[in-house]
Design brief:
Blueprint lengths: L5 H6 L2 H16 L8 H7 L8 E5 L7 H4 L7 E5 L7 H13 L4 E7 L3 H7 L7 H14 L14 H22 L1 H8 L4 E7 L6 E3 L2
Length: 209
């Protein structure tokens, strides 16, 4: 499998780029990944890179975009932070990846049983982690059910997963509200901005409609 070139990147559309991710996830689930010579891809990309997708996802060791979408070196811009939220630096990275480097789809990928989301549900406070947790807590407040406070914590995995999904939705809103560049690219059809959830129990990514 060869790395993307400027020509192959330019021929992809936002729709075909999303489909490439979907196809890769199916290969991952079915253990039918494409055989790649990664060393050859290192050589092929040494003079330039032409990824087709940008993925914001969690630092969780079980959630690696390159693996779960079955992609190789030079295929993805991979942005990772616990809880997959955005700040100015991450938005700037996205603008570079999409506007300057030419990726066609921007994915915000949450996942089930997210530790950072569990921390937000429990309102954890510890060192520098505190400020990170506080950035996810608005998603906790935005999930109305269950109302019983005793069920609104990390012991309720259904609640945790609902908060994780809401966090993705709110991050998508943040991207469109805080980046005129990305919002304009989406409006012009140059870029697709989409959310998804990864299930750590079966490897499947479910994209938002």
């Amino acid at each position: 499998m060869k790395s993307h070139t400027k020509k192959s990147q330019s021929e992809m559309t936002p729709e075909s780029s999303l489909q490439a991710l979907k196809d890769g996830n199916i290969r991952f689930i079915n253990a039918s990944q494409i055989a790649r010579d990664l060393n050859a891809q290192v050589d092929a990309t040494s003079s330039g890179q032409f990824p087709f997708a940008t993925v914001l996802h969690c630092i969780d060791s079980r959630v690696s975009a390159e693996h779960i979408f079955d992609q190789g070196i030079g295929d993805l811009f991979s942005i990772r932070i616990a809880g997959n939220f955005v700040n100015d630096d991450i938005l700037g990275s996205m603008e570079f990846a999409c506007k300057l480097a030419g990726t066609k789809v921007l994915v915000v990928l949450g996942h089930t049983a997210c530790g950072a989301v569990k921390g937000a549900c429990d309102h954890a406070r510890m060192g520098n982690l505190t400020s990170l947790i506080k950035k996810i807590e608005p998603a906790v407040d935005a999930v109305s059910l269950p109302e019983d406070e005793s069920m609104r914590n990390s012991s309720n995995i259904s609640f945790v997963n609902s908060v994780a999904a809401k966090n993705v939705e709110m991050t998508l809103i943040d991207i469109r509200e805080k980046s005129e560049i990305l919002k304009e690219m989406e409006a012009k059809g140059e870029l697709m901005i989409i959310g998804g959830m990864y299930d750590i129990s079966n490897g499947k990514v479910t994209f938002y409609a």
